[in-house]
Write a structure and sequence with these properties.
8 helices; Rossmann fold
Length: about 230
């Protein structure tokens, strides 16, 4: 990680995950307990969208809870790995895979009862991108639909040096870091993150038109439960 972080394009973020897809999918199989709890708390047979689904780490527990799931991701390779894994899963699991950008979801409005957006917003290069993604989530949620959102927290102990080095930066850049991923052949690929404080997460949720119902902490993460109100901005 370096104090001067070159903010990538969304295309570059996509290329990063295309490059690390296989090793990332192997290392990131266990679902987050927060997602499992969220899935259990939804009404039976809910229609759920997993934004930034990758290879299906959370698609499978959502589907296993009896929900009809659509996973959307920028990385075609990640989606292929997820689809291959689904072929080996019980036929009762209902899931579909769609290649798409979270800031412009290729989906109809008012379609989903719930949405997960876990470890996604912090990879987006700008505040405008993050707000657009949340607005897209709001658009595809049905009235009163609910979303679980997570981002990496700026106050993690491992980033204490970064906080000091970036203290002079504007808030929109203060949390920008690069985190290395080492491939099996030893090649190191840098992944862009924008680390959040809770106030920043609250702000972009409000700006998107979603209503933040609750905010809580997990290990190294800020979480939000947000809802599309039946009446609100269009």
């Amino acid at each position: 990680m370096t104090p001067d972080v070159l903010v990538p394009s969304r295309g570059r973020v996509r290329a990063t995950y295309e490059a690390i897809a296989e090793s990332f999918a192997q290392a990131r199989r266990e679902p987050w307990p927060e997602v499992v709890d969220f899935a259990k708390g939804l009404p039976p047979a809910s229609r759920v969208l997993d934004v930034g689904c990758g290879s299906g780490r959370h698609v499978f527990p959502l589907a296993s809870a009896g929900h009809s799931v659509v996973g959307v991701d920028l990385s075609r390779r990640m989606l292929h790995l997820g689809a291959e894994a689904l072929r080996l899963a019980p036929r009762t699991l209902r899931a579909h895979w769609i290649e798409g950008d979270a800031t412009d979801l290729p989906l109809r409005a008012d379609r989903f009862d719930a949405c997960t957006c876990v470890a996604v917003l912090h990879h987006m290069p700008t505040t405008a991108d993050r707000v657009r993604a949340l607005r897209e989530i709001r658009r595809v949620l049905s009235p009163d639909g609910v979303a679980l959102i997570s981002v990496w927290a700026l106050d993690q102990p491992r980033f204490s040096c970064i906080r000091k080095e970036h203290a002079h930066m504007p808030p929109t850049r203060r949390g920008d870091v690069e985190v290395p991923w080492t491939l099996p052949d030893g090649t190191v690929v840098q992944r862009y993150y924008h680390l959040f404080d809770e106030a920043e997460l609250r702000r972009i949720i409000i700006e998107s038109g979603l209503r933040g119902e609750s905010f809580f902490r997990g290990p190294g993460n800020h979480f939000a439960i947000a809802r599309r109100e039946r009446r609100g901005i269009s």
